[in-house]
Amino acid sequence: KAGVTQTPRYLIKTRGQQVTLSCSPISGHRSVSWYQQTPGQGLQFLFEYFSETQRNKGNFPGRFSGRQFSNSRSEMNVSTLELGDSALYLCASSLGSEKLFFGSGTQLSVL
Amino acid sequence: EDQVTQSPEALRLQEGESSSLNCSYTVSGLRGLFWYRQDPGKGPEFLFTLYSAGEEKEKERLKATLTKKESFLHITAPKPEDSATYLCAVQVTDKLIFGTGTRLQVFP
Q1: Does B46 touch chain A (CB under 8 A)?
Q2: pLDDT tens sequence across B63-94
Q3: Cα-based distances in Å from B9 to A18, B12, B98
Q4: Phi first, then psi: what are they for B82, rounded to 5°?
């Protein structure tokens, strides 16, 4: 069974640009969550989608948005990038809201 | 405010030298406590879920325990392949709150 797939693996952007990250969950998993990981803050919850609906949202500005498609694949978008957005963005899928299966992440660098 | 704190931040052990990692939490309405392992360049990998004080779970050289205010991850006779960052997370309502992790290095 394939795991959680995140693309791209690495991204380099400049301040002010926008970026879209993609996540394909494990087959059959309808819940997809997104996390931001930085050395100082650890994993911070961004949002969770279940059956195309945002079920939960963390404390991030509106520049961070996401969506989920009917096949459970999910995308997250960050607009007007700032230097502080440099981080590893992790996607996780699950059957419910407990045990999470993480992808390897997208490493975003904002210059 | 819900908070999860892990200690120590980093731990260096000699192969075979047993030790424990700590995860303390102050949350309202704990629904579960999770331990994950994260290797460099990879996402976290699920290890254990604990639900109530007194519960214990074991997997190979790892044993997780839970009290009302903290959890311990005991590592018995560790090997170099146990080197990783160990993350603790607490489920509160529908959200997971992660600690910042303990970076474990085991030397031969």
Answers
A1: yes
A2: 999 998 999 999 999 999 999 999 999 998 77
A3: 34, 10, 14
A4: -80, -5
